[in-house]
Specification:
- By secondary structure, the chain is an alpha+beta fold.
- The protein has one domain: Peptide deformylase (Peptide Deformylase).
- 28% of the residues lie in helices and 27% in strands.
- It has a five-stranded antiparallel beta sheet with strand order 1-2-3-6-7. Strands 4-5 form a two-stranded antiparallel sheet.
- The longest helix has 21 residues.
- The two termini are 30 Å apart.
- The structure holds zinc ion.
- The site of zinc ion (ZN) has 4 residues, from helix 2.
Length: 184
């Protein structure tokens, strides 16, 4: 199977940038965790490490599935920190905290986003086992950011009005770059 066969829109299984329309699509639940899913998850970690990220959601690489990966250490040498979330759900949000956030699909854009400071996340791992974790701090922020991707929600959508105004210039630049990359 070639890389292109892996994506959901006929484009490459590679990092997609705003405003690629696939970023606004909802991911479909995973029904079977087989070699295909395991290979794609491996590729997602590789792409995430290449880009220096700590989290990556499937739609960001052209795969509209309910999967995201996290390694808060951002180090491939720390596989013990790798977390895979398949068909994740979030419950019991509590507190509220604002912090700077970035996204691999929005190079160089860092903006403050307010989110619940802790959440409970239930998901299935690559081994097919369901797990639940109580996430706080950076992990809670990351889990919420990545889960949003599975619903086509981007961090700029969560920004306050003032921040959206400030970010407009950067977004316009990304829109221009995207158009040029498509030869238009
Ligand atoms: Zn993101």
């Amino acid at each position: 199977m070639s890389d292109d066969d892996w994506s959901s829109d006929g484009g490459p299984f590679a990092l997609r940038f705003y405003p690629d329309p696939i970023l606004k699509r909802r991911g479909a639940p995973i029904t079977t965790i087989g070699d295909g899913v395991r290979d794609r998850v491996r590729r997602m970690f590789e792409i995430m490490y290449e880009e220096g990220g700590i989290g990556l959601a499937a739609p960001q690489v052209g795969w509209t599935a309910r999967v995201f990966v996290i390694n808060l250490s951002a180090e491939p040498e720390e596989p013990g920190h790798e977390m895979v979330f398949i068909n994740p759900k979030i419950e019991s949000p509590s507190g509220s905290e604002s912090d700077e956030e970035g996204c691999l699909s929005f190079p160089d854009l860092r903006i403050p986003i307010t989110r619940p400071e802790s959440v409970r996340c239930t998901a299935t791992g690559l081994d097919g086992e369901t797990f639940t974790l109580e996430a706080t701090g950076l992990l809670a922020r990351c889990v919420q950011h990545e889960l949003d991707h599975l619903d086509g929600v981007l961090f700029v959508d969560r920004a306050g009005f003032g921040v959206q105004v400030t970010a407009k210039k950067a977004l316009k630049a990304l829109e221009r770059e995207y158009k040029e990359s498509r030869g238009g």
